[in-house]
From TrEMBL:
NCBIfam families: OMP_YaiO_dom (TIGR04390). Pfam families: TPR_19, YaiO. TPR repeats lie at residues 132-165. This is YaiO family outer membrane beta-barrel protein. Keywords: Repeat, Signal, TPR repeat.
């Protein structure tokens, strides 16, 4: 009785499903392919999509696009053996389609088979030497495998073909930060005030940067002449990597010349490299003169073609009110990751500025406006030069404003 019931149920299901299979049989390979794509992309039903793709291939066994798609869906469905079988079979047919090399190399890249991915990409580039997609994937593979010089070569080749490739530009910036193990830098800042102070300010900083397997570290010494007095400061900053997406900023500084510099400064931020060439940061900065000033910061950045857009805020709460600082920055990259023009505008004082000692007297709670520009360029990739100017209009006493003009020169040697 039980067996009969099962047979009856199965027969009923077959009866219901027979129109479905009949309708599938009447579809062309293109129609089945379109249905498979919709099933995979919109419904995320990879098993059903695989069945439809196989049915399409029965009607058109040499339809390369369907085979490549089938390999992709197997990859998304975590059936790596079947995906590789599809791609290897296509390889035996000497397929030269760009999408084939991208799909096959992506499979190996996502599964940390970096050497195999590079082998596939190099073969693809022999047929498509100008392929931006292949070069970008090649740079990503080398970057993930910590082979930064090769990643830089691939990304520079891509940017020479299309300097406006947004994703390539974002990756080039990250690669540039870690291509050289060492960097020595010197920076000079000059500030002139028309009302607020009688004497100009001079600041010189010397830094050493070291790239390690866990991130970069920067040791910096600063000398300043402000208010006719001299002072020194030492700083240490680190950018430890947490994952492919996240890394930290951790910084601290000390000076025995309070007023010219804060006695202590600390800061921690969590940074994220987000999809679609976005990046974000959230954290805090603390300055201690005679009392601690706590500032909370957040920023969002976006690469678009040759441009980088960023907006940052600092929020400083106290017992009576909350002070705000906002800065917007736009960069235009002319060549590689180290050559750009920048414009900046904003309000308030940030703890990263050379004038952060003004925070001690709470002048940052008064109205401040700033605007400036910067030009960075490189010679032979290892010699980096920078020139920037900044204009400040600050209410240094209630209803009394003054102007400040800054010029900053910098040089860095990478090796």
């Amino acid at each position: 009785m039980f067996t009969y019931s099962i047979r009856k149920s199965l027969g009923f299901l077959l009866l219901l499903s027979s129109p479905f299979f009949y309708s599938q049989e009447n579809l062309s390979a293109d129609e089945l392919f379109a249905k498979a794509r919709t099933t995979a992309f919109e419904q995320k039903d990879y098993n059903a999509s695989i069945i439809l793709a196989k049915q399409a291939l029965e009607k058109a066994p040499d339809y390369t696009d369907i085979s490549i798609f089938l390999g992709r869906v197997y990859t998304w469905n975590k059936d790596l053996a079947s995906a590789r079988a599809v791609f290897e079979d296509l390889g035996k047919k000497d397929i030269k389609d760009e999408d084939y090399f991208i799909a096959y190399a992506s499979l190996e890249y996502w599964n940390d088979q970096y050497d195999k991915a590079i082998e596939i990409l190099d073969k693809g580039l022999t047929y498509h030497p100008q392929s931006e997609a292949l070069l970008l994937l090649k740079a990503k593979v080398y970057y993930s495998n910590n082979d930064y010089p090769e990643a830089e070569k691939a990304i520079n080749s891509l940017l020479s073909i299309n300097p406006k490739n947004t994703e390539a530009r974002a990756l080039a910036i990250k690669i540039n930060e870690i291509t050289s193990k060492n960097a020595l830098g010197v920076i000079y800042n000059y500030s002139h005030f028309d009302k607020q102070f009688d004497q100009d300010w001079h600041i010189v900083g010397i830094s050493y940067k070291r790239i390690t397997s866990i991130g970069s570290f920067i040791l910096r010494g600063n000398y300043a002449n402000k208010f006719g007095e001299n002072g020194t400061q030492i700083e240490l900053e680190a950018y430890p990597k947490l994952s492919k997406t996240f890394y930290l900023y951790v910084g601290g500084g000390y000076s025995n010349d309070v007023g010219i510099f804060p006695k202590y400064r600390t800061g921690v931020s969590l940074n994220a490299n987000l999809p679609h060439s976005f990046e974000a940061e959230i954290g805090y900065r603390q300055l201690y003169f005679n009392n601690s000033i706590w500032m909370y910061t957040a920023s969002v950045g976006k690469y678009y073609k040759n441009f980088w857009f960023n907006i940052r805020t600092y929020i400083t709460p106290d017992r009576e009110n909350i002070s705000h600082s906002y800065t917007g920055t736009v960069r235009y990259y002319t060549k590689g990751a180290q050559d750009y023009f920048a414009l900046q505008a904003g309000t308030g004082i940030s703890p990263e500025e050379y004038r952060n000692n003004l925070l001690e007297n709470e002048t940052f709670k008064l109205k401040t406006f700033k605007i400036g520009g910067e030009y960075n360029f490189s010679i032979n990739k290892t010699n980096l030069f920078s020139l920037s100017t900044m204009y400040y209009n600050q209410e240094f006493r209630p209803n009394e404003k003054g102007n400040q003009f800054d010029i900053t020169l910098g040089y860095t040697k990478k090796f």
